[in-house]
Amino acid sequence: MAAEIESAVMTAADDGVGFVSTQFVELFAPPHPLVLESGEQFGPVTVAYETYGTLSAKRDNAVFVCHALTGDAHVAGKHSTDDRKPGWWDPLIGPGRALDTTKYFVICANVLGGCQGTTGPMSIDPATGRPYGARFPFITVGDMVAVHHELVRTLGIETLLGVIGGSLGGMQVLDWAARFPNSLRSAICLAAASRLSAQGIAFNAVGRRAVTVDPNFNNGDYYHADGPKKHGEEGPRYGLALARMVAHITYLSELSIERKFGRKLQNSDQFAYQLQQETEFQIESYLHYQGKRFIERFDANSYLYLTRSMDYFDLAAKHGTLQHAFGRTDARFLITSYNTDWLFPSSQSRQIVTSLVQTGRHVTYLELESVFGHDSFLIEIEQLAELLVPFLRETYRRGGG
Amino acid sequence: MAAEIESAVMTAADDGVGFVSTQFVELFAPPHPLVLESGEQFGPVTVAYETYGTLSAKRDNAVFVCHALTGDAHVAGKHSTDDRKPGWWDPLIGPGRALDTTKYFVICANVLGGCQGTTGPMSIDPATGRPYGARFPFITVGDMVAVHHELVRTLGIETLLGVIGGSLGGMQVLDWAARFPNSLRSAICLAAASRLSAQGIAFNAVGRRAVTVDPNFNNGDYYHADGPKKHGEEGPRYGLALARMVAHITYLSELSIERKFGRKLQNSDQFAYQLQQETEFQIESYLHYQGKRFIERFDANSYLYLTRSMDYFDLAAKHGTLQHAFGRTDARFLITSYNTDWLFPSSQSRQIVTSLVQTGRHVTYLELESVFGHDSFLIEIEQLAELLVPFLRETYRRGGG
């Protein structure tokens, strides 16, 4: 195993999957709309997705990646030479990497309700010719999973080798195993929970409130008359940036903020004694920067819909008990949490694991050590690879692959 | 001791200090302005304060209470029969209570920069006849302490039996011991730190940003032309409420939110599947309520100035080291932290205690157990009383009282 890890790390500096393109497919066109968990019917849904590697002849090597709140389908590689950075989980995916694209066919899709290509509030409503805005239907984690699952079927895949995701992505993984129990052979759930805590709902409520009280929110109808502009050029810019600032604090650990910024000042060794300096401390400057960057790439309405879907997520409530939720799948589970993650603490992962054990499922759980708080699942690639490589290999082997 | 505690608890249901009035005094009038830590000169300063009990003939029984960020001088009793609630620390103060007003003379004053009677940004600038607003000078925790100390001198008290406070109040206690080392015989610092953490600065930055991006902030000049109106009737209402919502989350523990609210809905057993319902979960309704209540009693400019003073607070930086800061006082120290307080975690109190021990000071430290997070210092009165009663009695005895 050590040799494999070493190889994964060594090739991480290489080109990975290289250049990739986002693809689009229309699903749930009339007369077959998506039936949402609210009971409402909705369609058509355009799905933006990317794939890496090659689907095997037996169609038994596909791994689906579920992205987190503000992620997208572009999980690895670059779209063009102009890209400053590769996809959001690039170190994990590529030839010789943990999700080895010489072995596995990796799929990632932007979630329903998102703003990176899949139908969401900023998409044009065919009925009106204008963006949905607040007329977009209420969606749940289960609805996102239903769209993902339909995409996978459309790609000709009956059973996935694995579904993997962290945070909101991890919630999708759990929901997938409960909702489509025979469609996956492994479920890898990182830094997540079977339901959002009251504290998590509280922070989401603050973020949404920041957006909705911004005068430029205009009840969600802030898009340009000719259709949505580039992100960040219209709408509740200040509110969305503020929402990102507060959320960003919850993604970091106290230790990592203290180590990285501490009380260091941004441009001076001495206090300015000026209230108007809003970014005197480095941590302030960093948060303001994160807010600014975020509004360039994200839609405020999507932020409202997706955070609300997290609030609603409660697998036990939906299925009666967690045991019922997990009782119908033979998937092998790999659960990880991170010791400094206070947004999705280890106690929540242990609850999932306990229920899986009680249901007689195959489950492996580790609390990984990292200073990076909730963001660890995006950063601590080596520790994750060390588990993921043999776990997927064994899942594949047991499937007769 | 047990009998004393019992007595304190039993009388807590009684009238306490009864009816009280806020008093006002003008300090730092020309030609003796306050020299602020920024170097700027400022005055006059009106101070709003209350006292409970009677100053002894020897003037050796006075205890000064430093309030936290959004507190005020009204720490105990009621102003009139119309008051729904007594002062903010009422269960701690009164005949037979821990700060026993039959023995001690208790003083509390609204801080410099506040909005409850002491000169702050909403006060009228005598030079212009209009509220200071953003022209109010930059203030520090040390400046607040300088005003408190001058008030105490004005009341004819050379040496306080004790100075007590939690959170920002605890910072004042530490600063007091460093700045006026011979003016106090004991220092009681609850749920505080010798400097604000990067995470604390981060949350304050978010709260200030919520205020400053509110269009009604108007660079701090939002007061009515005829002078400030009642709190909450003008200015950045939405921004200040939002700041309070996020701050309020940091004052509670995850456990207490989970126990009190969990995922319970406010008005239904079933999800509404309506994004427009901003207070569907009880925790959301609670936070919105806290925001609304707060703007009725607090000024947004004061919020900016006071949170910034917390950010700046760094006793070691100011004095070279914590050992230097604490090296000149013979005060007895009592330090407490609370096991579920993640805003001012126990590690920060331990740092204070270590420095005090290294400096050869008298110091007692306990981490108290409470589910209430940072707010514990306001709520866990019995545990505090159990320490405070004998600690103050012994301090008094050692003073030859």
Task: Note the topology.
2 copies of one chain form a homodimer.
Chain A: H1 2-11, E1 23-27, E2 34-35, E3 41-42, E4 45-52, E5 62-66, E6 93-94, E7 99-100, E8 105-109, E9 124-125, E10 130-131, H2 141-154, E11 162-166, H3 168-179, E12 186-190, H4 198-212, H5 237-251, H6 254-260, H7 282-295, H8 300-312, H9 315-319, H10 322-326, E13 332-338, H11 346-358, E14 362-368, H12 376-379, H13 381-398
Parallel strand pairs in A: 5-8, 5-11, 6-7, 11-12, 12-13, 13-14
Antiparallel strand pairs in A: 1-4, 2-3, 4-8, 9-10
Helix pairs in contact in A: 1-13, 2-3, 4-5, 4-8, 5-7
Protein model, in words:
Chain A is an alpha/beta fold and 401 residues long. Chain A has a domain of 279 residues: Rossmann fold (3-Layer(aba) Sandwich), CATH 3.40.50. The first copy, chain A, has 13 helices and 14 strands. Chain A has an eight-stranded mixed β-sheet, with helices on both faces. Chain A has a two-stranded antiparallel ribbon with strand order 2-3. In chain A, helix 1 packs across helix 13 and helix 4 packs antiparallel against helix 5. In chain A, 56% of the residues are buried. The N terminus of chain A is likely disordered. At the A-B interface, helix 4, helix 5, helix 6, helix 7 and helix 8 of A face helix 4, helix 5, helix 6, helix 7 and helix 8 of B.
